[in-house]
Amino acid sequence: MSYGLSDGAAPTRFVLAYSGEYRLESWRPSSGWAILAKWPGKCSVYGYCGPYGCCDNTMVDPTCKCLDGFEPANLQDWNRGRFSQGCRRKEMLRCNDGFMSLPGIKSPDKFVLVNNRNFKECAAECAANCSCVAYAYANLSTSETKGDGTRCLVWTGDLFDTEKWGDLLPTETLYLRIAGLDAGTREKASALKIVLPTVLENPDDRPLMPSVVFALENGSNSLPAPNQPAYFAQRNNDMARLRENIQNSMNTITITAVEGR
Question: Could you tell me the CA-to-CA distances from 130 to 55, 71, 122, 156, 214 in Å, in that order?
Fold first, then answer.
């Protein structure tokens, strides 16, 4: 690698520090060597956010956040930017608690690989084990699976070295077991998210059928949120004004206007 400087520029250098950081430094006569850039970034430091902490790379200045259902283990240290103690659950888990989908996540460390499982079997594998705290499922194109084209990852210990990348890099959806989340309620909510976009009034706003089938088979919630249902209650202002102006007759005839609900 080589680089050059323009005439009159301050002296610069690349330094591999004892800590493992790779730095670009520039000389300042008043203060010495100033760090212009350094690698790896905060989120690339292994376990930077501690157990159940997630380093959010989607922010301009990446920082640590607790996963859903968790809070800082030491709030005072957390507010000071010391994240090594990570996060703890707000409520203790029960065996029948459901799972929340967290898309755009780089898989945490220390998973167990379960071969020859489709998505539903992977979900059932984790749900049936009360010690399983999370699972993920994604295609695997390498030879690690020896012919098995899919992978099922499950976690039974603390989630460690978790990062959120969103759409920046190929990621997976992490399904995290959440205390107090009823599995049946979650499944109904997921089904509604899939069904509602298919009944939008404008056909152009409806998702394509292959997308709906994929969402149903894989438990995905990636379909767009519906703008408004095809049929909804809307008061007819003209009819309302007509009702207000009607004078009751002596024989008390009742006039009823039928409106769709």
Answer: 27, 22, 14, 9, 28
